[in-house]
Amino acid sequence: MFIGVGKVKLRLPENHSLKGKRHVLKSVMGRVRNEFGVSIAEVESQDLWQVAQLGVCYVSNDAQHAMEVISKVVSFIERMSLDAEIIDFETEVVESL
Fold first, then answer.
1. Are the beta carbons of 70 and 9 closer than 8 angstroms?
2. Which residues pair with 40 in a beta bridge?
């Protein structure tokens, strides 16, 4: 079993409240879940208005497929026309028992 893991750091330059941040992130996470069937959550920077870090996880029986799905999620977020831009991301595939 292989676990694809991604961490995406977003900048929300037009955001001025935690409520606005939640609205943007809820939209991003819902669309990503529906499109790819991955697990996604805000993992850091919860108290900052204009920065968000999302963790993405996908389980597969093929390491290449797991990495491909995580990479497509990052590309999908980049293409979304929201008030958010990706400023950094990391991806990794971990083999598990």
1. no
2. 56
Q: How many domains does the chain have?
A: 1
**Which run of H or of E encompasses 7?**
strand 2-11
Give me the CATH number covering residue 20: 3.30.70.1120
Backbone torsions φ then ψ of 23, nearest 5 degrees: -60, -50
| pLDDT grade for 81, boundaries at 50, 70 and 90 | low
pLDDT tens per residue across span 37-50: 999 999 987 778 88
How many other CB atoms sit within 10 Å of the CB of residue 16? Answer: 11
From CA 16, how far away is CA 63, in angstroms rounded? Answer: 40
Q: What is the pTM of this model?
A: 0.83
Cβ atoms of 13 and 85 within 8 Å: the answer is yes
Range of the domain at 18: 2-95
In whole angstroms, give the CA distance from residue 26 to residue 78. 16
